[in-house]
Amino acid sequence: MKTSNKLKFLGIFFFLNSLIISAQISKIFNGIEFNESLVAVEKKIRLISSNIGIYKISTPSFPLSNNKEEHLIASKVVLKNGIVDQVAFTFSDNKLSLIQAKGNVIKSIVANIKSEARAYLDYQVYMDELLFIHEKNDTAWLLTKTGVHPNLFAWNNPYLDLKNTSEVAYNPSVKIPGFIKMGENIAVLKPLLQKNSNFVNEENLGKEGGISKAQINCFGIEFAGFSRKFEARFENNKLTKVWILTAKAEENRIRKKLIDQYGKALFTNDKWEVFNNWTVLLRKDKPEILVLNKSLAAKYKKQYTK
Asked: Which residue(s) pair with 230 in the sheet?
């Protein structure tokens, strides 16, 4: 699949994700289903696993968690078609919200799928099941529809190998990273974005009104306590805005951090809460942070305060 077609596919996929109902491929793990409690999942997984560990996080940072974050890690999980080396079950407010598996995933998990995969970057994506496979790393992610927007397939659970015995601390700051320089040329910023991300991909968005548009998608930049996707938008090769993808469950947590960093919101309506002279906006109708250059910030201010 050509890159442009990959990106077109993913754009359609993300747009329609709210309409997609997962086929609950999670049931291959002894009948486990998303939204089940930790106690229910633990009972089922103990019957097919050689060892488990449970991590209860004192300061939640997982995007789908509001007040509570827990991880159950199972080793040597016996499935119908093979044994998976490690499986991480992540719980948000005591509901199973993400599964990541590593080791022998093609034989043990993909063998259960009848539909065809589509390619995106280095992933094979099974849309109906919300299953992402990174074949080179022998890793699978099983998502709920709420996990698609924050790109949780690009995150690796730090407790997966059972070696982390203490709570992992991400950068909690909501200060915009210093390498995000509004107005800077794409040729200058691209290597900086690559250096500070786990991986990136670039989209050519064509021209509109004589303005060429491009976007660099940056996966794995830490912000507000988690590893995020940053979407850096360029017009005529100059950085004009950045979208930072978040989740609805963490909105209150991020709002508090923004207030601590920038002071009380300058403007609030049903869609936006505005900070830092209109250059940092908390979006509420779709969970994201929008970072603007000064020119766009002035336009937003004029539009919403006229």
From this structure: 218, 244
